[in-house]
């Protein structure tokens, strides 16, 4: 089987890495660190299956175009990708489906948004309605900061047109998890849960990012909790989409908070998470190519099986990320880390030089370690990360460090 992966980041590298166990793989446009990369336009490529990684081409309708050409595609059409392209529409789907979620409102006018904030307490969540590369979310306990964000979002100063409509939510408390479900338009099967870390700095300080690390499995998530999430969130959402004539074939990424009142959905994404993909897929024992082919063709017939190993991923980011990204710094230590057993380097923001690789984006590398326990995987990952360096490199030191806090909750 030949599989074409569309995208250029660490997520696409991880997809290609795991797909290549059983399939011939090509990645477009890829990046210099992904060995299967090509500059050939996706619409000119012949393959048995197309897997679309990033959200932007899904929202813009790439899956629709490929399907019109008779291609088999894993990734929703634009109507389904609207779950990620519009947070206000996603909230409408959650409400219509009866899925537990935070109390919220949708606003285009500042004064109405300020009035809604006054009726909340303790924790305020401000989100752009449109795509903002994972950065259009503010969580704060400071009402003045929340009001300032509302003003900057709605004016277009912060995120352009993506923020001129906003969603404001009450803040929820509890540990967060990510559950990715593979969908074939009729039903869905869950992948292994993961927990990711969105803030730039340790102890969840600093601005939101696209993700600074992740781990899987999650000790406090039992099998019956996964089943419950599928029953109360994923399946009802798919049924609502079907009623609306939306044939959703792809990943439904469910971001949840496990509150004292049970799991509540924070967000849906229409694609594999990054960096969750880099810890979930390396643990997969099922043939990924066959799994995604079954979903794309509307005939899922297997439940994914995962190894008992744990995976921990740490993202190494460039100086000034996420506000902007310094580029062109030589990355030192890659050759030593590539020789380490149990370590995968997933490349994203890199360029090739005569001497090796240099930075060329915000999130530059994801280092994933695999081990028999979460602790051993974490130690291995940080041993590898300690050997990577470039001027201004940013990383978190606390990925998976406190997962034991939730074991008995």
Stretches where pLDDT falls below 50 for ≥5 residues?
Answer: 404-409
Roughly how much helix do the residues carry, as a percent range?
25-40%
Major sheet description: 5 strands, antiparallel
Mean pLDDT: 94
Separation of the first and last Cα atoms: 44 Å
The neighbouring-strand order within the major sheet is 11-14-17-21-18
Shape: globular
| Percent range for β-strand residues | 25-35%
Helix/strand structural class = alpha+beta
Secondary structure: number of strands:
21
Rg value: 20 Å
Number of helices: 12
Describe the structure in your own words.
The protein contains 12 helices and 21 strands. The protein has 409 residues and is of the alpha+beta class. A hairpin with a 2-residue loop joins strand 15 and strand 16. 50% of the residues are buried.
């Amino acid at each position: 089987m030949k599989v074409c992966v569309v995208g250029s980041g660490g997520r696409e590298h991880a997809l290609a890495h795991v797909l290549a166990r059983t399939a011939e793989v090509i990645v477009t446009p890829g990046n210099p660190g992904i060995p299967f990369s090509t500059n050939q336009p996706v619409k000119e490529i012949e393959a048995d299956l197309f897997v679309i990684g990033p959200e932007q081409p899904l929202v813009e309708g790439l899956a629709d175009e490929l399907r019109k050409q008779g291609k088999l595609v894993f990734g929703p059409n634009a109507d389904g990708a609207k779950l990620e392209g519009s947070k206000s529409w996603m909230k409408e789907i959650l409400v219509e489906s009866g899925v537990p979620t935070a109390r919220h409102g949708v606003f285009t006018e500042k004064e109405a948004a300020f009035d809604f904030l006054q009726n909340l307490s303790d924790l305020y969540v401000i989100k752009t309605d449109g795509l903002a590369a994972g950065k259009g979310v503010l969580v704060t306990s400071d009402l003045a900061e929340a009001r300032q964000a509302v003003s900057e979002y709605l004016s277009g100063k912060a995120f352009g047109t993506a923020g001129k409509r906003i969603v404001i939510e009450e803040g929820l408390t509890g540990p967060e998890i990510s559950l990715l479900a593979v969908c074939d338009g009729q039903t869905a099967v869950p992948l292994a849960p993961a927990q990711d870390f969105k803030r730039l700095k340790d102890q969840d300080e600093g601005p939101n990012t696209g993700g600074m690390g992740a781990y899987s499995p999650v000790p406090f998530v039992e099998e019956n909790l996964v089943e419950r999430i599928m029953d109360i969130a994923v399946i009802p959402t798919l049924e609502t989409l079907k009623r609306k004539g939306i044939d959703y074939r792809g990943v439904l990424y469910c971001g949840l908070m496990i509150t004292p009142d049970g799991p509540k959905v924070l967000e849906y994404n229409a694609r594999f998470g990054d960096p969750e993909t880099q810890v979930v897929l390396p643990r997969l024992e099922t043939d990924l190519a066959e799994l995604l082919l079954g979903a794309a063709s509307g005939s899922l017939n297997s439940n994914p099986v995962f190894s008992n190993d744990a995976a921990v991923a740490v993202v190494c980011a460039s100086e000034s990320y996420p506000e902007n990204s310094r580029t062109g710094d030589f990355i030192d230590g890659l050759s030593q880390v590539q020789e380490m057993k149990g370590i995968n380097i997933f490349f994203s923001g890199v360029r090739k030089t005569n001497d090796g690789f240099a930075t060329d984006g915000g999130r530059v590398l994801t280092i994933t370690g695999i081990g028999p326990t979460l602790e051993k995987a974490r130690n291995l990952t940080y041993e590898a990360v300690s050997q990577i360096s470039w001027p201004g490199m940013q990383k978190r030191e606390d990925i998976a460090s406190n997962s034991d806090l939730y074991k008995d909750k």
